[in-house]
Design a protein that fits this description.
The chain is an alpha+beta fold and 818 residues long. The protein has 20 helices and 26 strands.
Length: 818
């Protein structure tokens, strides 16, 4: 019976409940060119669409005939705007290569006409007002036409095409635009048939060269032979073969969504059947159809215009005075969420609120509100530490990262397990030596008041930014797969987390965390079971597929500090995780909620032990998602970011009701991090500022202030998160987050200075903390050091400079030597 039940469950979740997204084509204003846009440069510069040059005559890219090139340049400033002429090309050119780079584009090579020699010129093209300026770049090593170009990491790559002798080539040229003296160099040649009109696109730190055409000899009247073989190029690693196009084709490719590449290449079978757009997925190495191309799509030029695929073809009827221009948008299937799923969501949220109401009756002091009366069970506190650190960003991002890469990041989790030893045996005795509410009280007792205020304020500022991000990023993914708007997702998380935290304090926070951990982990296990059941061969099939594609790669042996070498991952994350586990009030506050040091130690060990099965589950799930969508690429939605892959699977494949419950748990994971931040920031503000400077205030007044602060912080975090979604200020917020992230290493360094170096004093400590921010900022801006090592830089620079400054300044502390 059990086997039958499992089989029925798997059958209910069989692939195909939802499909991915297709391209929907709409027309823009036609380009005032009667002969089509064949052979033109196409680029987006300063968010304006530019079409330059091209063929003036009846010829095509793979036929001989009488034609000449044009120099006209046309600009379309918005999708609903009108084309206008602007500065012409320095010389008439067709069949050159172009690559967009935001504020500029690169035009290179091309030809002047039939029988004419190719061009070796290259330009950096920018707008100056309404006009274009063509800034000369170093000329190509030789003439090159019918090549393709792409930008990657500040360099422009030019692949294949016809060389000076008119014959196809497999060369790849590269120009580093950031070099002091830029010059074209020959990169690794394509290890395949020389070709022209390839599709070249940069994705995920690599170049993808898809298909192309092998022209017939100049003396032969046969048409060019389209090709299907495709390749991936990684700078420093060279070429590897990837999945062939489903059918041979040549022509341009452009980015589609976060991880797909759209191909709108030329027809290859000559049957006259409707042309179809295809999409290649760079993570699963698969192709899917994106629907039929519109009439007039032959020999398109195409470009990515702010996430919209824009293409210009040729008039469907001879004599048409203009060239059709099309815009393609991804149209996803409706959400697979049912009424039962929404009911499960509502019931879960109602349960969280009821928990807040229940615990509101059990707290009448700040010690209850912030510390749960110092009587919380060690196992519940351990689960809460785990839940606090496993935000919904992590819950979605860990499987997504494994889905996109391999198991190299499992060493990050190992570092947290190893970190439990120094935290329990070296840090915890200092924290539990005296009764504290805020971790930063220790810094005043060890150093002085300014050090405490600096640390507490740094924590508060960082958490204010983090709370908004913790709601905003998951809301984007959850909105896409549930059909609930981003604003509603943010409001649900913000209002509910604030409500039960205001009412129940840390007890509500910890017990809701416990509930959420069970639901989250149970949902992950269920998802893995269903995923394995839907795959050929189950677990053994997953392991075989993963081994074939090296998806279980863990260790990279290298001394290179710019990569994920084994020592970079382990050492870097040992230091990086010292920050939350030794200096973050949201975590350290949990150490104070248990009755004694022994119970606190058990809570830390509980968190470490939990990481072992949960890490294996999430990593297997990530590889399983890769294998599942590799087998079912049509279920992928190209519009979704990679971090949405797990919620997408939940919405598509889990049974009604269970899908809703697990999506509710993903919401709850955000709330788990948010409620901890609300309570801990409130604790820092009340303890380190209000109570410290108004010691005569009553506990009743402090409790009232704590509740009001929690409510106000919740409103502020929710409003900020909505602002991120509304006003597109993500880049500004990223900069703020980056600046606040500079403070973490210094905070952990302060605690290390105080606990392990008797000669450190307050003046030296504050000097070390501030200096660590400057040092880390310099390292980020001027070196290629892997970000995993930033924590080590921050902590070690704080300790080193702090000790040196303590010796030089020699100022006596007002604090004790705790």
């Amino acid at each position: 019976m059990r086997a039958i039940a499992v089989a029925l469950l798997i059958a209910a979740c069989a692939p195909g409940a939802l499909q991915g997204a297709d391209l929907e084509w709409t027309g823009l204003q036609a380009l005032p060119l009667p002969g089509g846009a064949e052979g033109a440069f196409a680029a987006v510069i300063d968010q304006k669409l530019v079409v330059a040059g091209g063929v003036n005559g009846p010829a095509s890219a793979d036929e001989s005939g009488a034609w000449t090139a044009m120099a006209d340049v046309w600009v379309l400033e918005s999708p609903d705007g009108s084309w206008r002429k602007t500065t012409p090309l320095p010389q008439p050119t067709a069949f050159g290569a172009s690559a967009s780079a935001g504020t500029f584009a690169v035009f290179a090579g091309g030809s002047a006409g039939a029988g004419a020699e190719g061009r070796d010129s290259a330009y950096r093209v920018v707008f100056e007002g309404d006009e274009l300026r063509f800034q000369p770049l170093p000329p190509l090593p030789g003439a090159r036409s019918l090549a393709s170009a792409a930008m990657l990491d500040g360099a422009v790559y030019l692949a294949c095409g016809r060389g000076t002798d008119g014959e196809p080539t497999s060369d790849m040229l590269v120009l580093d635009l950031n070099a002091v003296r830029p010059a074209w160099e020959i990169a690794s040649p394509l290890p395949a048939t020389p070709r022209v009109s390839v599709g070249l696109t940069a994705r995920e730190g690599a170049l993808f060269l898809l298909g192309g055409a092998a022209p017939a000899p100049a003396s032969n009247d046969e048409r060019a032979r389209p090709l299907a073989d495709s390749y991936k190029f990684v700078p420093g690693a060279g070429w590897t073969r990837v999945a062939d196009r489903p059918a041979p084709a040549s022509g341009q490719t452009v980015p589609l969504g976060p991880t797909h590449i759209a191909s709108v290449g030329n027809s290859s079978d000559g049957t006259g059947r409707p042309l179809r757009a295809m999409a290649y997925h760079v993570l699963t190495d698969t192709w899917v159809s994106q629907g039929e191309l519109p009439a007039g799509a032959e020999r398109m030029i195409a470009v990515d215009w702010g996430g919209t695929l824009v293409a210009a073809g040729k008039p469907a009827e001879p004599g048409t005075p203009a060239t059709p221009v099309f815009a393609a948008h991804l149209v996803a299937e409706p959400s697979g969420f049912s009424t039962l799923d929404y009911t499960a969501l509502a019931c879960y949220f109602a349960a969280l609120v009821m928990m807040g109401i229940y615990f509101a009756r059990q707290g009448s002091s700040t010690e209850d509100f912030f510390l749960g009366g110092r009587s919380m069970p060690w196992w519940a506190t351990g689960l809460s530490i785990y839940g606090t650190q496993l935000s919904s960003i992590s819950f979605m991002a860990v499987p997504a990262k494994v889905y996109a890469t391999d198991w190299i990041y499992i060493l990050v989790q190992l570092s947290i397990i190893l970190l439990a030893f120094p935290v329990v045996y070296l840090y915890l005795p200092h924290f539990r030596r005296v009764k504290m509410t805020s971790a930063y009280e220790y810094l005043e007792s060890r150093f002085n008041l300014p050090v405490r205020i600096y640390a507490s304020l740094s924590f508060v500022l960082y958490q204010l930014g983090r709370m908004a991000i913790v709601m905003f990023l998951p809301a984007i993914a959850l909105s896409t797969v549930t059909g609930i708007s981003v604003y509603s997702c943010i409001l649900v998380m913000g209002v509910l987390a604030t409500l039960y935290t205001v009412m129940g304090g840390i007890k509500a926070v910890i017990w809701t965390d416990v509930t959420q951990v069970f639901v989250l982990y149970g949902g992950a296990v269920l998802s893995l079971v269903i995923l394995l059941g839907s795959m050929d061969g189950g677990l053994s099939g997953l392991l075989s597929a993963g081994q074939e594609y090296d998806k279980f790669h863990i260790v990279t042996w290298s001394w290179d500090w710019t990569t994920t070498a084994v020592w970079v991952v382990l050492v870097g994350n040992l230091f990086m995780n010292l920050v939350p586990y030794t200096s973050d009030q949201a975590v350290v506050q949990r150490y104070f909620t248990t009755k004694d040091e022994k119970a606190a130690a058990r809570s830390i060990w509980t968190n470490a032990v939990l990481l072992i099965p949960s890490t294996l589950t999430l990593f297997l799930l990530g590889t399983g998602l890769w294998a599942f969508y590799r087998a079912n690429p049509e279920l992928l939605d190209p519009a979704l970011p990679t971090d949405s892959i797990f919620p997408l699977f939940i919405a598509q494949q889990l049974p009604s009701g269970i899908a809703g419950l697990l999506i509710a748990a993903v919401f709850a994971a955000s709330m788990s991090t948010l409620d901890s931040s609300l309570n801990s920031v409130s604790a820092a503000l009340v303890t380190d500022f209000y109570a410290r400077f108004r010691p005569a205030s009553s506990d009743r007044r402090r409790l009232a202030l704590a509740r009001w602060l929690t409510a106000g912080l919740g409103v502020l975090a929710t409003a900020t998160s909505i602002a991120l979604a509304t006003f597109n200020i993500g880049s500004l917020w990223d900069a703020f987050q980056g600046m606040m992230g500079l403070l973490g290493g210094g905070l952990a360094g302060l605690f290390a200075l105080g606990m392990f170096f008797r000669r450190a004093n307050g003046a030296g400590a504050i000097t070390g903390a501030v200096s660590s921010v400057v040092v880390l900022y310099w390292v980020q801006q001027h070196t290629d050091l892997h970000f995993f090592l930033y924590g080590a830089v921050g902590i070690l620079s704080c300790v080193g400079i702090g000790l040196l400054a303590s010796q030089v300044l020699g100022v006596q502390d007002s604090g004790s030597r705790a």
